[in-house]
Amino acid sequence: MAIPVNMIALSGAPLSMTAIDSLGPVHGLSASNIRMLTRYFGLNSVAVNPENHSRMCAQPLATLMDHYPELATLSGLLIHAKTQTHNTFADSSWLKDLATEHGLQDWEILTLSMNHCASALSACHLISDSAQTRPVIILTGEKCFHAATCRQSSAALGELPTAMLLNHDHQFTGRDNWCITASRVAHTPKFHANPERMDPAVKREFEGTFGDWLQSFIAGCNGAFFTPSEGPDLVVPYNLNLPLLQRLSTHFGWGDRLYTGSISSIGHLFCSDVFYNLTQILPRTTANRIFCFAAGMGATFGALVIERRSAEHDSQQVNQGVNP
After folding, report:
1. How far apart are CA 39 and CA 31, in angstroms?
2. Is residue 274 within 8 Å of 156, Cβ to Cβ?
3. What's this model's pTM, rounded to 2 decimal places?
C-alpha cells in the first residue's frame, strides 16, 4: 500500500547553527571531543533552536497548518516520534495542548520511541502496516539539555523540528508527488545503554559489531525492496558517523547517490535527520526512488522507500548524484 507523503514542514523561523566549539556546557564537549568530531567525523556546527520544547515543535506544525488548514476539520492521528532520553515532558499534556492550539483537538495523539533515533521511520512503518485511512502527522524534534543525551563519540546532537503529513491527498495531479512504498524495522536486543555510559568491554563489542548489523539490515532491505539490476536512485541516511556511511557506500556501490550534504553543518537531529534531509532533496531531485535509513541504540534500525508518483510517472529509474 502506497502512503502519500503530502508535505514535510520545517520551522518558518530562520535556521540557526552554532559552531561545535561554541556549544557550551550542555553538550559538554572537551577539546579532544571537538578535534575528533571535526577531523574524523567532519562536524563543524549543529542546529540550535532558542525556543523551549513545546514552542519549538509548534513551529513546523504551524507551517503545515498554513498549507493544509482543512486538517482542522478532519479526524486524524498525530504522532511525536522521539528517542528515549526523557526530555519531552511525559508527565504533562504538552502534545495534546499543541494539537488543540492548532485546531487538531479531534485528532488522536500518541508518542513513539521504540526505536530511538530511528523512531520516525518506525512511525512511518507503523502507518504503512496498519493500513491507516486517516491523515497522519509525524512530528519530530527534541531539546539538548544534558551531555549524557546530546553528545556521542561520533556526533553532537542538534535541535531541528519537522512535521511530515502523510495519507491526506491521494490525487496525483502533478509531477512531484511522493509516496512511501516500502518500509522495514529491526531490533537487535543486546545494547540498551547509551554508548557513552556502557561498560568499556561492552562498548568495544557494540562499536565492533554495530556497523556489521547495519550493513546486514540494509542488505536485507535491498533484497526486499529492489531487484539486483535496479537499486535506489538516491540514498538518504541519518546524520551520524560519516566514516561508517562512507564505508556502507563503498560496500553497496552508492557513489554520489549517497546524500551527506547536511551532516557537517546540522549535526545529528535525534529523529529528525531523514525528514530534514528529504526537505533538502525532494524539491530538486530528478530521482524516482529514494532509499532512507536510520539507526539507534538497542541496536535498532528503520528504513523506507519513497517513490515519485504522478500521471506522467516513468517506470525507468534515474540515477542522480546529489553531492558536489
Report:
1. 12
2. no
3. 0.91
